[in-house]
């Protein structure tokens, strides 16, 4: 189990799981800012470099955690989309 931890910082994890989640969250923050311009959630007028650093760190940590979650459910998600198991989406029709 602990031998697998260095893989969470490797190139394959970054390209396959971390970057897609990071792009997803970044694009969603931009879109939320476009649809709700007066929301305090999307206030991008940063007053200092510390606020920018804290916001970037939080976005990176959340993206990394969701990347780990995506890595954990990867096999089950692929099997669901291929139609294995009792939760076959094609059986609904």
Describe the protein's architecture and organization.
The protein is mostly helical and 93 residues long. It has a domain at 46-83. 62% of the residues lie in helices and 0% in strands. Helix 1 packs across helix 2 (49-72). The radius of gyration is 18 Å and the shape is flat.
Keywords summarizing the entry:
93 residues, mainly alpha, 3 helices, 0% strand
Q: What does the radius of gyration come to?
A: 18 Å
Q: Structural class of the secondary structure composition?
A: mainly alpha
DSSP strand content: under 5%
Helix and strand succession?
A: HHH
Mean pLDDT: 80
What kind of sheet is the major sheet? none
State the helical fraction. Answer: 55-70%
Question: What is the number of helices?
Answer: 3
Shape, principal axes of CA atoms: flat
Query: What is the number of beta strands?
Result: 0
Low-confidence stretches: none
- The N- to C-terminal Cα distance equals 40 Å
């Amino acid at each position: 189990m602990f031998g697998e931890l260095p893989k969470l910082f490797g190139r394959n994890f970054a390209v396959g799981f971390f970057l897609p989640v990071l792009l997803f969250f970044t694009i969603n923050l931009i879109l939320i800012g476009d649809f709700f311009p007066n929301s305090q959630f999307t206030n991008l007028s940063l007053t200092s470099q510390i606020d920018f650093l804290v916001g970037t760190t939080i976005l990176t940590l959340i993206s990394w955690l969701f990347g780990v979650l995506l890595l954990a459910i990867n096999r089950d998600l692929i099997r669901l989309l291929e139609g294995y198991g009792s939760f076959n989406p094609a059986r609904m029709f």
